[in-house]
Inverse folding.
């Protein structure tokens, strides 16, 4: 069974050190997502239409909102993965145009060869998460150095023309009916699984709603709903003391067991293990 060895969270987003021996379903994140192998067997991720190898020398690079899945072959040994989920607003602190990490195409390729510096920083961060989970300031400094190195190596950061204003203009291209549907999904996730109702609310046929939703968000309503549910679930699991039955009900699951299975299929571990490991140290930056 997969397990969480360490989880840190803060204004930067979150970082998880995961011991993986099972596949994850296709999903997406509202984060700049970087995956680095810490130990164990080489493995792979499906990123968009590509199967991308995760090895000692190669990282997997996933853009915000980009659908992907972890692909584990049962006959292979386990893999320990350092998974970074980084907030674009935090990256903007370092350079204003790094807010472009919140838009598609920030990483030009889904994989890249690790430099010795990136390898060393990632291993140092993984080791500190295990040995000293309460070392918040030191962890954030290591993460800052690591992400600066990742962006400088794997993005055209010197010539990035996107700024926050560019991203806002891209948001303006959202069809207004889809924007309203997304707002409803965020406000009432327990109702959002009824796509027919969302289409009616938007004044569209089911087929037209699906087409406009994919054109606006680059994902299906189902994948977007799962993204939204997962981020709300992580927020509740880490930052609240609500029972998982309450969280399950608020997110629209028919039973707590369904919520637990959903969480494990997306995060690799159960919500109870995620909560326990995430609370081993204080929020970084707190």
């Amino acid at each position: 069974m997969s397990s969480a060895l360490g989880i840190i969270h803060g204004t930067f987003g979150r970082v998880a050190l995961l011991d993986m021996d099972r596949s994850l379903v296709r999903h997406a994140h509202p984060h700049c997502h970087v995956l680095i192998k810490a130990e164990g067997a080489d493995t792979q991720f499906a990123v968009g239409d590509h199967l991308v190898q995760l090895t000692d020398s190669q990282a997997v690079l996933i853009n915000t909102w980009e659908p992907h899945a972890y692909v584990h072959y049962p006959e292979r040994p386990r893999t320990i993965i350092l998974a970074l989920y980084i907030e674009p607003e935090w990256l903007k602190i370092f350079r204003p145009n790094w807010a472009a990490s919140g838009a598609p195409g920030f990483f030009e390729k889904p994989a890249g060869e690790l430099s010795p510096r990136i390898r060393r920083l990632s291993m140092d961060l993984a080791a500190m998460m295990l040995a000293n989970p309460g070392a918040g300031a030191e962890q954030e400094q290591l993460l800052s150095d690591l992400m600066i190195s990742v962006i400088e190596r794997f993005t055209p950061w010197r010539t990035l023309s996107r700024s926050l204003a560019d991203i806002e203009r891209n948001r303006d291209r959202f069809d207004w009916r889809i924007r309203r549907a997304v707002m409803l999904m965020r406000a009432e996730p327990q109702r959002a699984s009824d796509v027919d109702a969302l289409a009616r609310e938007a004044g569209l046929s089911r087929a037209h709603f699906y087409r406009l939703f994919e054109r606006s968000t680059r994902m299906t309503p189902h994948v977007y709903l799962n993204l939204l549910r997962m981020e709300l679930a992580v927020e509740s699991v880490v930052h609240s003391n609500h029972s998982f039955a309450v969280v399950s009900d608020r997110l629209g699951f028919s039973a707590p067991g369904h919520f637990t299975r959903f969480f494990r299929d997306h995060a690799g571990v159960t919500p109870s293990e995620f909560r326990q490991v995430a609370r081993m140290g204080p929020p970084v930056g707190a």
